[in-house]
Amino acid sequence: MRSLRTPVLSAVATAALVAGALVGGTPPAVAAPSPDLSIANVTAHLQQLQSIATANGGNRATGRPGYKASLDWVRARLDAVGYTTQVQQLSTSSGTSYNLVADWPGGDPEHVVMTGAHLDSVAAGPGINDNGTGSAAVLEAALAWAASGNTPRNHLRFAWWGAEEQGLLGSNHYMRTLPAADKDRIELYMNFDMVGSPNPGYFVYDDNLAGNGARDAMTAYYTSKGIAWEYIDVQGRSDHASFRSQGIATTGMYSGGETTKTAAQASKWGGTAGRAFDPCYHRACDTTANVDTTALDRNLDMIGHMVWLHADKDYGATTPPPTTPPAGTNLLVNPGFESGASGWSGTSGAITSSASRPARTGTWKAWLGGNGRTTSENVSQQVSIPASATAASLAYWLRTDTAESGSTAYDTLKVQVISAGTTTTLRTFSNVGAGAGYAQFSHSLLAYRGKTVTVRFLMSEDASLQTSFVLDDTSVTTS
Ligand code: PHE
Ligand code: ZN
Ligand code: ZN
Fold first, then answer.
1. How far is CA 9 from the centre of its chain?
2. What spacing in Å lies between the alpha carbon of 364 and ligand 3's midpoint?
3. In whole angstroms, what is the distance from residue 86 CA to residue 102 CA?
4. Deepest of 137, 229, 405, 424, by most Cβ within 10 A of its Cβ?
5. What number is the average pLDDT over the span 400-428?
6. Where do the structural domains in the chain lie, given as residue ranges?
7. Quick check: CB of 238 below 6 Å from ligand 1?
8. C-alpha separations of 40 from 165, 293, 300, 446 in Å
9. By the 8 A CB rule, do 83 and 103 touch?
10. Is there a catalytic annotation at residue 165?
């Protein structure tokens, strides 16, 4: 027998255990291939945003032309590579703002992974670190995904928010106007607001919604690259809060703003102790000169890793929302009995192609009774009436022939609906009035909308003289 301490295996196992212990959570089971995203491209995107600010009064703020110009430019880049983009307009006290939402076609629509950044600056300056960096990095991740040729397991959506600086107005608007079913589909929202601060730190949002490993995947990534990180409690300071307050798992990173880097932080991250992470935070000097390219490059690859990893994360079985059949569809299976007993329950042999009784159409029918002795027979089928139905109808053709005479009901056929254990008889036919050939009957089932019920045809014959109830061409239809 081999030793348990096979050297290579145990070294790997130990490393995995240590990594798991360090991040205090379960590392991803399989390391997804991480892309090496282009910092040169991101730098070019930042120059573009700077030019837009310069051409529009020095900022890209809500209600100013530099904001809409930024949005138009990002949108055009996404449209060109195959995203489905959508612009949402909202009004604020600073003027009209817009969100840009870009969907990558495909992926499981029941599992949506979102990545976003606010695109607006404050009025004081061009907003290149805050938040050209997040905007440009998310844009580059989206463009690289399009270029990768990958097919995601999950549906990928990217967003650029307006009016974050006015109090998360764009992301709040998005969530307020998103239908509840679509909110439920969002598995994760990742937020990137300031990811290239000139005196950088590496702060991971301390949000660990139960069952979601996104935060731990982010810290594990930094650890694997030898980058020290700290948790930060970002509270409501950026757009993740619009999602978090709705119970959606979020994560994100922040390279620091107006607060001062401590000596301990400077010793692990470099940079200058006693100086703000971003001395130009919300100022005119937040230009392309206000970015640490090394930090931005690292964070860019982290974002790529997170997008690639979560694109293929297994969020469990898909439970598609109940689909409503088109109005007029016959909800009964094998309604004319031409496939024999298939789809129907009840008395065996009642559904027959016997030539002794004619079908109304085809060959098969349900022939209940005709025995001339005490018997009970039935056929039944379960059916779900859509909750959205505005009309619902059970219809069937019935032909009754009898050896009885007179006006006493000896033998009967009850048409019933069984719902939650309660049986309701919609109509009772009998030997009285038999002999008129096939006739169609119908009843409303609207009272059962939103319910799964059993439709049953129940025959009861007395001791002598047969009555045959022959049923064909049934239907349950809704509109
Ligand atoms: N949302 C802040 C701003 O745009 C920046 C910030 C991001 C602060 C994340 C804390 C955490 O001004
Ligand atoms: Zn800001
Ligand atoms: Zn910001």
1. 39
2. 71
3. 6
4. 137
5. 96
6. 15-311, 345-478
7. yes
8. 27, 10, 11, 63
9. yes
10. no
What are the contacts of 53-56 at 24+ separation with CB within 8 A?
A: 53/121, 53/125, 53/126, 53/127, 53/128, 54/126
E runs forming strands in 84-205: 84-92, 95-103, 108-118, 154-161, 186-192, 203-205
Pocket test for ligand 1, best of 193, 206, 242 (most atoms within 8 A of CB): 193
Q: Which residue out of 62, 237, 254 has the highest number of ligand 1 atoms within 8 Å of its CB and is therefore the one to mutate?
A: 237
Q: Do you know the residue count of the chain?
A: 479
Q: Is the pLDDT of residue 324 over 90?
A: no
- Asked if 287 and 50 touch (Cβ cutoff 8 Å), the reply is yes
Residue 164 CB–ligand 1 contact under 6 Å: yes
66 Cα–ligand 3 center, Å: 16
Record the tokens describing residue 150, joined without a space.
């990958």
CA 13 from centre of chain: 35
Question: Ligand 1 in contact with 207 (CB < 6 A)?
Answer: no
Confidence of residue 320 (pLDDT cuts 50, 70, 90): low
C-alpha span between 419 and 461 (Å, rounded): 25
Helices 39-55 & 65-80, crossing angle to 10 degrees?
150
Does the beta carbon of 239 sit less than 6 angstroms from any atom of ligand 1? no
Pick the catalytic residue from 110, 164, 377, 404: 164
- Domain 15-311: homologous superfamily in CATH: Zn peptidases (3.40.630.10)
Ligand 1 centroid vs 238 CA: distance in angstroms?
A: 5
Q: What is the pLDDT of residues 357-388, one digit of tens each?
A: 999 999 999 999 999 999 999 999 999 999 88
State pTM to two decimals.
Answer: 0.66
**pLDDT score for 9:** 31
Does ligand 1 have an atom closer than 6 angstroms to the CB of 473? no
One-letter amino acid of 341:
A
Per-residue DSSP letter, 28: P
Which atom of ligand 1 lies nearest, measured to the CA of 234? 11
**Interval 209-265: pLDDT, tens:** 866 899 999 999 999 999 999 999 999 999 999 999 999 999 999 999 999 999 999
Give, using CA atoms, the residue closest to atom 8 of ligand 1: 237
DSSP 239-250: THHHHHTTT--E
**Ligand 1 atom 12: the closest Cα is on which residue?**
165
Considering only CA atoms, which of 396, 380, 397, 390 is closest in space to residue 452? Answer: 380
* Separation between Cα atoms, residue 178 and residue 68, nearest integer Å: 22
Note the CATH number of domain 345-478.
2.60.120.260
Q: Is the CB of 472 under 6 A from ligand 1?
A: no
DSSP code, position 320: P
